[in-house]
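Troubleshooting log. The previous structure file for this entry was overwritten by mistake, so regenerating from the original sequence record. Sequence copied from the archived sheet and checked twice against the printout by T.R.
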Amino acid sequence: MKSFITLLLLLIATAVNAIVWNPEITVPNARSKWRAGQQYTVKWKTTVLGEDIPDGVNGTIKLGYLNEGSINEHLYWDLATAFPLNSGAQTVTLPPDLETKNSYIIVVMGDSGNASPKFTIRAARPLTSQ
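Regenerated output below.
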């Protein structure tokens, strides 16, 4: 019986360690409209498959976009790195030179990535001279 309990505990520990930390992104969503060059907070759930993301798992946030008919995510911009994934939120600053598109995505990566729905980023407002 003791060996059965030990085996069961080992299996549970292995299953927890085998979880891929790719949390569901809640902000931005399909209704989000952001502006290039501005700061925004990316938010995500801190549980995956009912398990809390543990301390020590760091994340990366990338910005990309999708083109119709392509699976390429064009993840050209790193917006944040090495933050605790169990924080559930991270403030990022968008690059100022983005063009207007309604097909941008945010990817939050732990040991795998999860993409937001497509959302809109508008180009930065031109500077006006006085």
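Confidence is low (pLDDT under 50) at residues 7-16. Archived copy saved in two places this time.
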